[in-house]
C-alpha cells in the first residue's frame, strides 16, 4: 500500500537532480497522518538537487495528508491541486514549493496523451 | 447578465455585484453576490428599516474597489416625505466592509428597527453561470453573540462567511438587527465586516500571505495612485482618447490578480465578473497589449505560467508536457473534479504565445535574466508545438479534446462550439487547426531563434528554428490560401480541406509575419473591405458567410482586442492607413461605453445603428478589451523597440490631433513620443 510513497521518495533521492526544480530551493516536510501515527518525509531542494530523509525537522513548507491519498497522488490516481482545493491536503508555509513538487507526480495511469491521427491510422 | 443597474466593485478575485440599492438577492437570472476564489460567499444581503425596503436616490462607484449608495425608505413617490437618509459605503480589499450611516432629518425623535438579512448559497461560479444548483454538501448558519457565521461543508472542503459589526447587534441565523433611538438630527453609524474563509482541516486559509497590497481602503487607494503614477502620461487634444486611456489604466489595475502560487505578485485576470482568474491566452495577449505602459505584468505572467507549465499527460485536464495552461479555478467544481480547471490546459495558442511574449518583453525591457531563467520552459513549449500538438503529422498545431465531457471543443480564441465552419456552414471534424495559431507558431520559432542565438548560446538551435519557421511559412502559404477568394482559410480539417470563410483571424496572421509579402495587400484589402469592416471595427466573420450573424458570439460580432492585433499586424506590413482606420473606429466606439470597451459589440453596419450595440452577455471590464486602447496607441504612434532604442514612427488620423506619450519605460530608461494627426482616412475603408 505505502510502497508507492516509499518508491516515490526513494526515486527522488536516487535521481539526485531534477531539472523541473532547477529554480527551486527550500525544504518540504510531508506529514502523513494515520490515526495517532504520523510518517514524516523531508525533501530538501537546492536548485534542483534533491535529498530525501525520513525526519521530523523544521521545514519551509509542511504538507499534511493521509498516507492513502498520498499514495494515490504519487501514482497519478489523484491530482494534487484538486486535493489541495478540497482540503484533503493542507499546506503550511510556502505554497509555491508544493506546486512545484506536485508537477513531479505522474498523470493518471489511464491517460493516453494526444491522439495522433496518423499514428491512430497505423494501429 | 450585465444589467445596467447592477453595481460592481472588486479587488483581485474578490468582488461584489449588487443592485443599485446595495442589496443582493441572488437568483439564477440575477447573479448578484459577494464572490471570492470562484465561490459566492453572500447570496442575500438585504437592508430594511422598520421592515421596509429602501430606495436608491443615487449611487457612486467611487473607485473600482468602493461604492456609495444614498437611500431613503419607501417607494419612489414618497421621496419628498423622507425624514431619514441611509448611506451605505462599501469597499472590497480582501474582505468586504460596509459602513452604514442613518440620519434623522425629522424634528422628532424616531425609533428604528434596522435589519440586514444575510445568507449564502456558496455556489461555485460555474454553477452561477450555468444555473445548476444541486449542492452535494451541507449549508449551515450559526448565530453567535458577536457574529454570524454562514458556512458550507463537503468532506474537508469548507467555505465560511463571518459577519461582525462595530456596534452590538442581535444576530440570528438569517441576519442581524439593531434597535435604535435617534434624536432630531442625530446620526448613527456602524461598520460591518464580512470575511470570507477557505478553511482546511488545520484551520488554515488557502489564501494566506497572498495580498499584493494591504486590504485597508487607504492601502488600496495608495496602490492605485502609485500604479497610475508609474504608467506613462498620455496628453492629447482628443478628449475621448485621454479619458479612455485613463479608464483603461484604472481597469487594468482593478483586474490585477494574485494567484495562489505567486506570493502576492500580480498578473491580469481575464475579466469581471466570470473570469477573475488566470487564463493563459487572455493574460498573455493583455500583457502584449500593455507592454509599453506596464511591462512588469509580463514578467509575473511569464513566471506563473512557466511555473504551472504542463509536465505529464492528463486527459481530464488536456495536459501535455510543455503545454501552457488555459484556465485556473479555485471553486468546488474544480476541487471535486466536476470541472477540469485545476488547471485546465485546453488551449493551443497560449503555448506559442508564451514564447512570443518572452521575446517581445525582452525587446522592451532588456531583461536578459528572465530569458535565461525561462529557457527550459521555452524549449518545452517549442517541443510541444512540434510533437504533442501536431496531431495530423503535417507540421501544424491541431486540437482535439481528450476530455469529451467538460473539455473545450474549440481550443483557439474563438472557443464557442460553432465558431469554426466551412463556407457552406457545416462544422469540420476533429482534429482541427485554425490559421492564426500557425502564425503564432511561426512567430514563436522566429523569436525563439533570436533568444537562442543571443542569450542561450545555442546557434545550432537558432538555425534549426529558423529553418523550421521558413518551412512552416512556405507550407502554410501553400495549404491555407484560398485562391478563388484570395484570402487565408480560417481552418483546416484533418483531410486538408479548407474552412474557406473570410474571418478576422487573417489579421493575426499579419501580426505574426507568416503572410507572404505579395499577399499582404490583398489581406489588408479584405480586412477593411465591406464584408469584414463595419465602420466601427473588423467583424469576427464576414458578412455574407452562411454563419454570419451580427450578434453571433464569434460569428460576426466585433471584438476590440481582436481589432487591436489586426491593426498591429497591418502596421507591421506597412499598411499604416488601414491600421489607423481600425484604431479610430474602435476608439470612436469606446466613446459610447465611457471609455470602457466591452468584450464584444454587434457587427452591424455603422451607418445602420449609429452607435455600437453591446453584445448581450459581454463581460466588462475585460482585460484584453481594457488593453486594446493601449495597443492602438502603440500602433498609431509606431512605437517599436529597435536595437536598444525606442523607434517612433507615428501615423495618426487627422481627427486625433496631437498626442504625446511621456515617460515610456524600457531598456532606454524613460522616453517621450509625440505625434500629430495627418492621415486622411476617407478613402481607405470601403465600408
TrEMBL record, chain A:
<feature type="domain" description="SCP2">
    <location>
        <begin position="18"/>
        <end position="105"/>
    </location>
</feature>
<dbReference type="InterPro" id="IPR036527">
    <property type="entry name" value="SCP2_sterol-bd_dom_sf"/>
</dbReference>
<protein>
    <submittedName>
        <fullName>Sterol-binding protein</fullName>
    </submittedName>
</protein>
<dbReference type="InterPro" id="IPR003033">
    <property type="entry name" value="SCP2_sterol-bd_dom"/>
</dbReference>
<dbReference type="Pfam" id="PF02036">
    <property type="entry name" value="SCP2"/>
</dbReference>
UniProtKB/TrEMBL annotation, chain B:
<feature type="domain" description="Mannosylglycerate hydrolase MGH1-like glycoside hydrolase">
    <location>
        <begin position="335"/>
        <end position="596"/>
    </location>
</feature>
<dbReference type="Pfam" id="PF22422">
    <property type="entry name" value="MGH1-like_GH"/>
</dbReference>
<dbReference type="Pfam" id="PF14742">
    <property type="entry name" value="GDE_N_bis"/>
</dbReference>
<dbReference type="InterPro" id="IPR008928">
    <property type="entry name" value="6-hairpin_glycosidase_sf"/>
</dbReference>
<dbReference type="InterPro" id="IPR012341">
    <property type="entry name" value="6hp_glycosidase-like_sf"/>
</dbReference>
<protein>
    <submittedName>
        <fullName>Amylo-alpha-1,6-glucosidase</fullName>
    </submittedName>
</protein>
<dbReference type="InterPro" id="IPR054491">
    <property type="entry name" value="MGH1-like_GH"/>
</dbReference>
<feature type="domain" description="Putative glycogen debranching enzyme N-terminal">
    <location>
        <begin position="10"/>
        <end position="192"/>
    </location>
</feature>
<dbReference type="InterPro" id="IPR032856">
    <property type="entry name" value="GDE_N_bis"/>
</dbReference>
Amino acid at each position: 500500500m505505502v510502497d508507492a510513497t516509499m518508491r516515490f521518495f526513494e526515486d527522488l533521492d536516487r535521481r539526485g537532480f531534477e531539472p523541473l526544480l532547477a529554480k527551486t530551493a527550500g525544504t518540504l516536510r510531508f506529514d502523513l497522518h494515520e490515526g495517532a501515527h504520523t510518517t514524516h518525509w523531508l525533501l530538501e531542494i537546492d536548485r534542483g538537487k534533491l535529498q530525501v530523509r525520513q525526519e521530523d525537522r523544521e521545514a519551509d513548507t509542511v504538507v499534511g495528508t493521509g498516507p492513502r491519498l498520498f499514495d494515490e497522488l504519487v501514482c497519478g490516481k489523484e491530482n494534487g491541486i484538486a486535493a489541495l482545493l478540497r482540503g484533503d491536503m493542507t499546506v503550511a508555509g510556502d505554497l509555491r514549493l508544493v506546486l512545484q513538487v506536485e508537477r513531479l507526480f505522474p498523470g493518471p495511469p489511464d491517460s493516453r496523451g494526444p491522439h495522433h491521427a496518423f499514428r491512430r491510422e497505423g494501429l | 447578465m450585465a444589467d445596467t443597474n447592477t453595481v460592481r466593485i472588486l479587488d483581485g478575485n474578490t468582488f461584489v455585484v449588487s443592485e443599485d440599492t446595495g442589496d443582493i438577492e441572488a437568483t439564477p437570472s440575477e447573479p448578484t453576490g459577494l464572490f471570492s476564489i470562484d465561490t459566492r460567499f453572500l447570496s442575500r444581503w438585504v437592508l430594511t428599516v422598520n421592515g421596509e425596503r429602501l430606495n436608491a436616490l443615487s449611487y457612486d462607484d467611487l473607485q473600482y474597489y468602493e461604492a456609495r449608495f444614498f437611500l431613503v425608505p419607501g417607494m419612489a413617490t414618497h421621496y419628498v416625505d423622507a425624514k431619514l437618509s441611509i448611506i451605505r459605503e462599501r469597499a472590497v480589499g480582501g474582505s468586504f466592509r460596509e459602513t452604514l450611516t442613518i440620519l434623522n432629518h425629522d424634528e422628532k425623535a424616531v425609533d428604528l428597527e434596522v435589519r440586514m438579512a444575510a445568507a449564502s448559497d456558496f455556489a461555485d461560479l460555474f454553477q452561477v453561470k450555468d444555473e445548476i444548483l444541486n449542492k452535494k454538501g451541507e449549508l449551515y448558519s450559526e448565530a453567535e453573540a458577536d457574529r454570524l457565521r454562514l458556512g458550507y461543508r463537503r468532506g474537508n472542503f469548507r467555505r465560511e462567511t463571518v459577519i461582525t459589526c462595530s456596534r452590538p447587534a442581535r444576530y440570528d441565523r438569517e441576519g442581524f438587527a439593531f434597535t435604535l433611538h435617534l434624536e432630531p438630527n442625530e446620526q448613527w453609524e456602524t461598520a460591518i465586516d464580512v470575511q470570507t474563509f477557505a478553511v482546511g482541516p488545520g484551520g488554515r486559509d488557502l489564501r494566506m500571505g497572498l495580498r499584493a497590497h494591504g486590504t485597508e481602503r487607504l492601502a488600496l487607494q495608495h496602490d492605485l495612485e502609485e500604479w497610475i503614477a508609474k504608467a506613462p502620461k498620455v496628453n492629447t487634444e482628443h478628449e475621448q482618447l485621454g479619458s479612455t486611456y485613463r479608464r483603461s489604466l484604472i481597469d487594468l489595475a482593478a483586474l490585477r490578480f494574485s494567484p495562489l502560487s505567486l506570493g502576492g505578485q500580480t498578473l491580469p485576470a481575464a475579466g469581471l465578473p466570470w473570469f477573475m482568474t488566470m487564463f493563459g491566452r487572455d493574460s498573455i495577449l493583455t500583457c502584449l497589449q500593455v507592454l509599453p505602459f506596464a511591462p512588469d505584468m509580463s514578467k509575473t505572467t511569464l513566471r506563473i505560467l512557466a511555473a504551472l507549465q504542463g509536465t505529464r499527460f492528463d486527459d481530464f485536464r488536456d495536459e501535455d508536457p510543455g503545454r501552457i495552461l488555459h484556465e485556473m479555478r479555485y471553486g468546488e467544481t474544480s476541487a471535486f473534479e466536476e470541472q477540469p480547471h485545476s488547471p485546465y490546459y485546453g488551449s493551443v495558442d497560449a503555448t506559442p504565445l508564451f514564447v512570443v511574449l518572452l521575446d517581445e518583453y525582452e525587446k522592451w525591457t532588456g531583461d536578459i535574466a528572465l530569458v535565461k531563467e525561462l529557457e527550459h520552459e521555452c524549449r518545452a513549449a517549442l517541443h510541444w508545438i512540434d510533437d504533442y500538438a501536431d496531431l495530423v503529422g503535417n507540421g501544424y498545431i491541431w486540437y482535439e479534446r481528450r476530455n469529451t465531457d467538460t473539455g473545450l471543443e474549440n481550443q483557439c480564441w474563438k472557443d464557442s462550439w460553432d465558431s469554426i465552419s466551412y463556407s457552406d456552414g457545416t462544422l469540420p471534424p476533429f482534429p482541427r487547426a485554425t490559421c492564426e495559431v500557425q502564425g503564432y507558431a511561426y512567430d514563436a520559432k522566429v523569436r525563439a531563434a533570436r533568444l537562442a542565438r543571443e542569450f542561450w548560446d545555442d546557434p545550432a538551435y537558432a538555425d534549426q528554428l529558423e529553418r523550421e519557421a521558413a518551412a512552416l511559412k512556405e507550407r502554410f502559404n501553400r495549404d491555407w490560401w484560398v485562391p478563388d477568394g484570395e484570402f487565408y482559410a480560417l481552418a483546416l480539417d484533418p483531410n486538408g480541406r479548407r474552412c474557406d470563410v473570410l474571418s478576422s483571424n487573417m489579421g493575426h496572421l499579419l501580426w505574426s509575419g507568416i503572410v507572404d509579402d505579395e499577399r499582404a495587400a490583398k489581406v489588408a484589402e479584405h480586412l477593411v473591405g465591406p464584408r469584414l469592416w463595419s465602420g466601427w471595427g473588423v467583424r469576427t466573420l464576414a458578412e455574407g458567410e452562411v454563419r454570419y450573424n451580427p450578434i453571433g458570439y464569434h460569428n460576426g460580432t466585433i471584438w476590440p482586442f481582436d481589432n487591436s492585433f489586426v491593426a498591429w499586424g497591418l502596421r507591421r506590413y506597412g499598411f499604416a492607413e488601414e491600421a489607423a482606420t481600425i484604431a479610430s473606429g474602435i476608439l470612436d466606439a469606446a466613446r459610447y461605453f465611457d471609455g470602457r470597451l466591452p468584450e464584444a459589440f454587434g457587427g452591424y453596419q455603422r451607418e445602420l445603428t449609429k452607435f455600437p450595440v453591446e453584445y448581450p452577455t459581454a463581460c466588462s471590464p475585460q482585460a484584453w478589451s481594457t488593453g486594446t486602447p493601449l495597443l492602438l496607441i502603440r500602433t498609431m504612434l509606431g512605437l517599436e523597440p529597435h536595437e536598444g532604442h525606442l523607434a517612433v514612427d507615428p501615423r495618426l488620423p487627422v481627427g486625433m490631433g496631437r498626442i504625446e506619450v511621456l515617460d515610456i519605460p524600457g531598456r532606454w530608461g524613460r522616453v517621450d513620443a509625440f505625434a500629430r494627426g495627418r492621415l486622411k482616412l476617407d478613402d481607405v475603408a470601403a465600408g
